[in-house]
Amino acid sequence: MGLHEGTVNRVALISLILGRVVYAVNWYSMAAVFSLVAVELKQDVSGLGFVTAAFFVGIGVFQVPGGILAAKAGPRLSVICGTTIASLAALLTGFAGNLAEITALRFFVGAGMALVFAPGVVLVTRFLRKGSEGLGVGIYNSAFSLGGAIALSGWAVLAVLVGWRNSLVMSGLLGLVTSLLLVICVPKDTLRSDFRIYPHRLRLILFDKWLIALSIALLGLGVGSTVVGNFMAYYLENVSHVGVGEAGTIASLAVVSAVLTAPFSGSIFDRFGNAKWLLLTTGALMAMGIGIAFFGTLYSAITSGILVGLASGAGFTFGFAAAREANRFDSEYETLAVSWVNSISLFGDFVPPLLFSYFAIQFSYSTAWLCLALLSFILIFPVLFSKPSTKEVSPQL
Fold first, then answer.
1. What is the pTM of this model?
2. What pLDDT does residue 342 have?
3. How far is CA 193 from CA 24, 64, 119, 126, 213, in A?
4. Structural class in CATH, domain 10-184+196-385
């Protein structure tokens, strides 16, 4: 399926990277403008928690169905369909009349995005030369971080200038443009007529202890990227009384830092490949980054964003590269392996927003930051007690 190993399709690669940037804009645009949404709809941090949780439920539940779609119909079709669904839902959010409608639409934004990531990883690695797979994952993650930085630092300012509704409509339209770009630039998949998804192989993937351990570790890393990426701007605006533009810029430091580390981390994985200790190191850094926000100053917020970004840029690259490498079957199953890891980690990500908003309301924001830091670090440990399966499976299974 796709290009032969050793070839490079730069046009397709660039279109996928641009699509990933806009994908991230639609991921973070709601967090960037929620302070304005909250004023109009009379909401508080709990409203942001529900909206964020619904998004992660959508993106988590549809990961495996998206992986199956990509395996059967090809990753290109899955990426195009997912980008279109997510972009339409993001656009319609600009017309929502209440929090319930926004929550439902954010669920569909997540559901559409679930069809994009794992197939996109597979396509990007195939459009690069053999031996650069980890670098490909790093570049793809770096593009996501760049889009997140654009959303958090720019969309808040844009929302002040044109209104939060118009800003969300614009991000959705950008997504639809990238869907068209993918249709034009990414070559059609060469599907195997003899390919079948065997239930036995699917079960082996879904119950693979190593893949489950990787997903739990990524869930731990996701705690930091979720709470900092989605709550830091709101926290700075409403607790530290920082301006919208400045708060968005500080919040964007997490994704800006990830832009710098993701490609470099991919090269590290290609060279060393010891996912266990690489993930433990980045997990410790992530927990430290979340915990530093406890101090409640601008300097601690800046430091928190930088450390969380460094950890997420490296950690997610390590985790997804390890998941892709762990596939033991036909290349079509690569998407399923990555989707399964992403499914558990992202579905679990609906919990941190609810926990954070609960601790912030019932106790304090300082308590919320510390509790989430501890949770993040605890979730890294299962990966240390598991290892990739080396069992060979017969092609007839």
1. 0.74
2. 77
3. 34, 22, 19, 20, 34
4. mainly alpha
